[in-house]
Amino acid sequence: MNRYFKIAYLILLILPFSSFSQNEIKEKIDSLKYVENMPYICEGFTKCGEEIFWNVVKLKEKGIPFLIEKLNDSTETKAGVVLFGGNHTVADIAYVALEEIIHGIPTFELLGTEFDQEGCGYCEYWNFLRKDYQNRLNFKLAVENWYNKNKKDLVWISNNEFSSCDCNGKHPNEGHYEIKKK
User: Fold this and answer.
1) Separation of alpha carbons 52 and 33, rounded Å
2) Is residue 89 within 8 Å of 71, Cβ to Cβ?
3) Which residues, 6+ apart, have CB-to-CB distance to 150 below 8 Å?
4) CB atoms < 10 A from the CB of 68, how many?
């Protein structure tokens, strides 16, 4: 019985450290609501978007489940949407961070809409998600299902390619995940 007590004691000692890590990740993801400047077009990497955003991107695979959880958070931020108007929601910022961690997510397939519907191109993303909150919920579920189906096939690619902006310079992650080519 003494042995079981030692094991239980050891588990209780370790548990707070693992949950602290989870809480720290959650706090970083929750800070996305404070983003005011999203990366768009930048010369060199300095001042391309906010540090809050890039700190979330640096979480890599540890942040993915928490980012997916935010995909229905329609809280509006102060970060304006360049060319399309309005402001990013927390969900929009979480998705951009997710795209920086995993390149090649089939956005429009998961939205269930066409990229160039009515000739507007990427604005269809904004129009579709803003039209009805249920669209956000469906998109979140589709992204979650896509990730769960493909996460075992994700491989790390070391490079400095950005997914969400026309930035150049050193990527904070020095790489990204993508689906392994078969």
Assistant:
1) 9
2) no
3) 179
4) 19
The DSSP secondary structure of 93-138, one letter per residue, reads: HHHHHHHHHBTT--HHHHHTS-TTGGG-TTHHHHHHHHH-HHHHHH
Which pair of tokens denotes residue 164?
A: 């969400």
Amino acid at position 150, single letter: N
CA–CA separation, 43 and 28 (whole Å): 26
Residue 19's pLDDT is what?
45
Q: Which amino acid is at 83?
A: L
Rounded Cα distance between 23 and 26, Å, is 5
Using one digit for the tens of pLDDT, what is the confidence trace for 109-161?
999 887 765 667 777 888 899 999 999 999 999 999 999 999 999 988 788 77
Verdict on whether the full-model pTM lies above 0.70: yes
For residues 42 and 65, give the distance between their C-alpha atoms in angstroms, rounded to a whole number.
Answer: 29
Burial 127-152, CB ≥16 within 10 A → b, else e: ebbbeeeebbebbbebbbebbeebee
